[in-house]
Amino acid sequence: MKVKIKVWIEDDEENLIFGSGKTEVLENIDTTGSIAEAAKKVGMNYKKAWTHIKILEKHIEEDLVLRFKGRGENSGTTLTPKAREVIQTYKVLEDDIKRYSEERFQELFHKNGKEILSPKEDK
């Protein structure tokens, strides 16, 4: 058995501001240069990906995504340096919390070499 956790960041009114979903969308925007392509890669529709971006724009002071309209060489979507900083910082926080929860789970749920929540054997 193992412990599972999810990490997200909320504002003071408990609105979800940032988490793994927005991180995944932003990372895919960075690699594809397109909100539509990023949405496809993460298995969500364009409107949901766009909603993630709108939430970020509403709650975070600095721009994270820059959109350039058109079909030419300079069109598409790109991340700002701030977006890359937020993604990296979030991932460090998430990794730290996951590592701590796994270590703590082992300390609490494995005593004297035995799991205190052992799975039932099939008979």
UniProtKB/TrEMBL annotation:
A matching Pfam family:
HTH_1
Q: Which residues form the HTH lysR-type domain?
A: 24-83
Stored Gene3D superfamilies: Winged helix-like DNA-binding domain superfamily/Winged helix DNA-binding domain (1.10.10.10)
InterPro entries from the entry?
LysR_HTH_N (IPR000847), Molybdate_resp_trans_reg (IPR051815), WH-like_DNA-bd_sf (IPR036388), WH_DNA-bd_sf (IPR036390)
Output this protein's name: Molybdenum transporter
The record lists the organism as Malaciobacter canalis
